Each structure stands twice: as C-alpha cells, then as structure tokens.
From TrEMBL:
Pfam families: SAICAR_synt
EC numbers for this chain: 6.3.2.6
Pathway terms, separated by semicolons: Purine metabolism; IMP biosynthesis via de novo pathway; 5-amino-1-(5-phospho-D-ribosyl)imidazole-4-carboxamide from 5-amino-1-(5-phospho-D-ribosyl)imidazole-4-carboxylate: step 1/2
GO molecular function terms listed in the Swiss-Prot or TrEMBL record: ATP binding; phosphoribosylaminoimidazolesuccinocarboxamide synthase activity
Protein's name according to its UniProt entry: Phosphoribosylaminoimidazole-succinocarboxamide synthase
C-alpha cells in the first residue's frame, strides 16, 4: 500500500515506488457549488477513470503532452508526478454555466471563437475568476508559461471537439489543469471527464455531464455510462 499525498473532491493522489510516478484513485464522490453539495455516487469513480483514461490516451496519440501513463484498475491510474500550477483553465465554445450567468447571455449560443478563462485554484477563496495580470502578480506562472498554456488549451480544444463530435457530442466547455514535470516541462494533468466538461448530445441537446447532478435533472451514472459506452464503441478503438 502506498501513502496518500492528497485527498481531493473526486480523486485521491498516492505515492508509488517510483519517485516520478503517482497513483490516482477516482472516488465515488460528486460535489457541486465548490463542495457545498456533496454525495456518494456508486460507480462514478470507475466511469470517470475509464473516460479520462480513454481521453488522455487519445490526446497522447494526437501529440498532446500529458501526465497519463496507464490505467491500473477500475478506479486507479498511473500518472507522471507533476507540480500542479494553481490555475483552472476553462475553454468555452458555446455559452453556458457561469459565463452565461456572469455576462447575462442566453445559454446555447455558438461563440465566434473559443473563449479562454482563468480561475485561481484556491478552494478557500471559491476559485475566483482571474486575468493574466493577477497570475503575474501572484507569481503563479511566467508570461511565457501563460502563453504556452493558452496555446496548449486551444490545441486541446480542437482535438477534444473532434473526439467528442465523433461520438455525437458537442463540447460546450471544459476545464483543464496543467503541471510541471521533473524536467520543468508544462504538461496537461488532472482529468478530462463529464465532471470537467459540458457535453451536449448533438441530436437531442441533452446534457451528458455533471450538469444533471448540479441541476438535479437526471441520473449521473446513466449519462456517464452513455459517454463511456460511446467512447468504447468509437470506430478505430
Ligand atoms: P462554469 O460554467 O461553471 O464556469 O464551468 C465551466 C466548465 O468548467 C464546465 O465544463 C465545468 C468545468 N468546471 C470544473 O471542472 N471545475 C470547477 O470547479 C468549475 C467551476 C467548472
């Protein structure tokens, strides 16, 4: 057994025998409203591990440097150890969520070009919205690093739009986290799952993501299962 290094809202992080590798355990836990709404949901951990493993594997084949090494079990994966940069990088293709609310815009409008936002990853402050001057002032990342992160996030957006489109889903928006590996290189970390993406069925416009839990409009496990099933049945997989 290895030591727990960090207990997050949906995952725990554990050390391994290798200094530069970590074991992530996906938990059967769902939270919303920055942890104010919290439930145990049987099967969620397994589904998110499966979905994130598939997506990261695909990102690797598309040349996106990331932390994922392999899936270890139903709920565990092996990843490269990184120091997470405390930024939540959100990319939006369609108006929804906090963007629609903050700017008083209708949900579901195509954005003429992707909109990228930064949030300070700091639970105690409720992850506030921030800009590049704030990142610079707080010394979270250099200007060059921020440019690189933005470029990567937009590249990842294009890759993910195509991936989800191939399984009949529109990628509305998503959140990424980046980290520095032992060589100081910035790579994609954390997860890409229906917890961290808004995914709308192209035909019905139904949400196949955590919004069903946030808004109490459906069964989380059923919709995550549908995303996993479509990824598994994807042509060429
Ligand atoms: P938002 O519209 O609530 O700002 O969310 C934008 C996207 O980022 C959405 O796909 C959900 C994801 N997200 C996270 O993964 N974690 C978070 O803490 C928040 C606020 C959003």
């Amino acid at each position: 057994m290895s030591d727990i290094l960090y207990l997050g809202k949906a995952k725990s992080v554990h050390s391994t025998d290798e200094l530069d590798e970590l074991r992530l355990v996906y938990l059967d836990q769902a939270t919303a409203l920055n942890g104010k709404k919290k439930d145990e949901i049987l099967g969620k951990g397994q589904l998110n591990n499966e979905i994130s493993s598939k997506v990261f594997h695909y990102l690797t084949t598309q040349g996106i440097k990331n932390h994922w090494i392999k899936q270890l079990s139903d709920t565990e994966q092996l990843v490269k150890a990184v120091t997470i940069i405390p930024l939540e990088v959100v990319v939006r293709n369609i108006s929804a969520g906090s963007f629609a609310k903050r700017f008083g815009i209708k949900e579901g409008l195509d954005l003429p070009k992707p909109i990228l936002e930064f949030y300070y990853k700091e639970d105690a402050l409720d992850d506030p919205f921030m800009n590049e001057d704030h990142i610079d002032y707080l010394k979270l990342a250099s200007k060059e690093d921020v440019s690189f992160i933005k470029e990567q996030a937009l590249k990842i957006n294009n890759v993910l739009i195509d991936l989800f489109s191939s399984i009949g889903l529109t990628l509305v928006d998503f959140k990424l986290e980046f980290g520095r590996d032992s060589n100081g290189q910035i790579i994609l970390a954390d997860e890409v799952t229906p917890d961290t993406c808004r995914l709308w069925d192209k035909e019905t416009l139904a949400s196949l993501d955590k919004d069903v839990y946030r808004k109490d409009t459906g069964d989380l496990v059923s919709v995550y299962k549908e995303v996993a099933k479509r990824l598994n049945e994807r042509k060429g997989e």
